[in-house]
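Lab meeting, item 3. Inverse folding demo.
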């Protein structure tokens, strides 16, 4: 209780929030994106040419009669190249409307057809370790430059995605793929190495397909100017500031066959990149933004009924389907390679304190990698010990491991998102209470993506993930067979891989529970909390907002006052 009061007091005094500036919140410090990229030798993102009339950080005036929706987002894409290593909310937000996949993960969590006209399993060609699917494409697909998309382009895209996944993130997108081959101008056969629940649909909905000709002609793997089959094209991108999309006037799909991400019910979609909740709220009030999905409770309450700025706004409050989570570096590069020290770290974390400090009390703790909305979740897990806050047990485990204060300093990695930055800072205080020193390093998402798979860059990584779909699919991030080198905890664990494969194929509750218990005991990962999401929209622009399973506003599926 004393520590809880101290953590709350520090947070209320502004120390936690103020310290974010020193760890790269975007206003300086050693971990701003460009300075860190230069220091590490990593290339900084290159902006597309700024269009005349666009001012950094402000809304460009709409053309007469142009229908525009303006959205505040927390992260810049970093790169618009679909096969670049890593993924983030900033990239997937934009890429979902410029590139397309074989299947679409619709806003309600169901799968719909996108580039694929149909797909089916071929039992006569399948074995338990080589499951073959036939995929038929629409025969009239063209990208924004008029290039036709055929089976050759699908094979190229999947192989390019796999080849670029020499690290971790992209390998996971094609991790179940044994092979892909052309069987006709508009048909391919995709083979998976196991028949895991939802595996082929997940793969078909995550690998973007591009024209091989356009990709190779771009000169930079489409990092600055995508050429995709999507309903929108990139008009202007000022890195770290804004990005705008305009309708693809030559979009290929027939209107009656379009899914949530294929509709063109607004002329222009503008994203503005803002990391601080207070600045987003001000932007809503001044008319700069029409949509904000990441406001904390204090700022969102201004737009709720009875709030100072409620008139003209609608607030949708939902439990976010995304969990805030923490990866534990169990590799030999980290002191947390000793499972006793890793477990001690988890026992030192007070999730209730995190919810109070970071979410102002508006959140729920989690008890596994996943949540109760995941297919395969088991209610009994909420009654079991999931490293409940126990600082005395943490100290005992540290003593057992021979730890002495000052033996090491842990590195806590996070992006610049306000929630994850505050989470990292609060965990730093909680660890100090049991004698563990820690430092926080915070980076823009593009750089954070490259660092979170590098076991020399962090000991603890504050991250996030959607929990919809099969929980065993979510656990693929711990299956080292999905990756080129190691899983997201920095290890290869054959026992865990066997348990995960067995659970993914059988979907038997006993198998799922066995995998869950083992991964928990090994302290590879720790789920922190769901937050209460506050989605604010301007009523004179947005008449019916639609949000996807990751909590993102879907501009193509939403309805506006002009529709």
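The presenter then showed the designed sequence:
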């Amino acid at each position: 209780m004393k520590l809880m009061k101290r953590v709350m007091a520090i947070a209320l005094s502004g120390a936690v929030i103020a310290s974010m500036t020193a760890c790269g919140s975007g206003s300086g410090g050693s971990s701003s994106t460009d300075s860190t990229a230069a220091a590490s030798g990593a290339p900084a993102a290159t902006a597309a040419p700024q269009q005349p009339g666009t001012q950094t950080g402000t809304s460009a005036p709409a053309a007469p009669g142009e229908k525009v929706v303006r959205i505040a987002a927390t992260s810049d894409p970093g790169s618009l190249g679909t096969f670049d290593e890593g993924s983030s909310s900033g990239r997937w937000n934009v890429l979902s409307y410029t590139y397309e996949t074989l299947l679409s993960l619709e806003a309600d969590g169901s799968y719909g057809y996108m580039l694929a006209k149909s797909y089916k399993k071929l039992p006569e060609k399948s074995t338990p370790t080589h499951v073959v699917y036939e995929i038929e494409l629409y025969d009239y697909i063209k990208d924004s430059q008029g290039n036709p998309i055929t089976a050759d382009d699908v094979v190229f895209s999947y192989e390019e995605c796999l080849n670029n996944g020499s690290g971790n993130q992209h390998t996971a997108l094609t991790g179940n793929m044994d092979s892909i081959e052309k069987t006709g101008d508009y048909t391919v056969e995709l083979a998976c190495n196991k028949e895991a629940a939802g595996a082929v649909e997940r793969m078909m909905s995550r690998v973007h397909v591009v024209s091989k000709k356009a990709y190779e002609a771009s000169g930079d793997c489409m990092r600055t100017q995508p050429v995709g089959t999507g309903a929108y094209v990139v008009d202007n991108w000022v890195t770290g500031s804004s990005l705008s999309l305009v309708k693809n006037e030559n979009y290929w799909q027939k209107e009656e066959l379009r899914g949530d991400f294929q509709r063109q019910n607004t002329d222009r979609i503008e994203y503005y990149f803002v990391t601080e909740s207070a600045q987003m709220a001000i932007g809503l009030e001044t008319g700069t933004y029409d949509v904000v999905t990441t406001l904390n409770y204090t700022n969102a309450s201004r737009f709720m009924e009875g709030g100072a700025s409620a008139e003209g706004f609608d607030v949708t409050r939902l439990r976010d389907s995304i969990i805030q989570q923490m990866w534990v570096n169990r590799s030999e590069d980290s002191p947390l390679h000793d499972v006793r020290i890793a477990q001690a770290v988890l026992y030192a974390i007070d999730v209730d304190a995190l919810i109070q400090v970071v979410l102002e009390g508006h959140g729920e703790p989690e008890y596994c990698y996943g949540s109760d909305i995941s297919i395969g979740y088991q209610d009994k897990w909420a009654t079991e010990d999931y490293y409940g806050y126990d600082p005395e047990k943490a100290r005992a485990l540290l003593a057992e491991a021979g730890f002495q204060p000052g033996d090491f300093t842990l590195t806590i990695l996070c992006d610049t998102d306000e929630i994850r930055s505050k989470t990292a800072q609060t965990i730093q205080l909680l660890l100090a209470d049991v004698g563990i020193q820690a430092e926080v390093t915070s980076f823009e998402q593009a750089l954070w993506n490259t660092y979170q798979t590098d076991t020399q860059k962090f000991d603890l990584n504050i991250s996030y993930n959607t929990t919809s779909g099969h929980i065993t699919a979510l656990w693929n991030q711990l299956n080292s067979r999905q990756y080129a080198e190691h899983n997201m905890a920095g290890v290869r664990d054959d026992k865990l891989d066997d348990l995960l494969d067995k659970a993914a194929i059988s979907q038997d509750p006993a198998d799922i529970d066995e995998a869950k218990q083992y991964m928990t005991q090994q302290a590879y990962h720790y789920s922190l909390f769901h937050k209460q999401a506050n989605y604010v929209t301007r009523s004179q622009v947005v008449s019916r907002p639609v949000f996807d399973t990751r909590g993102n506003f879907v501009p193509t599926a939403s309805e506006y006052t002009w529709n």
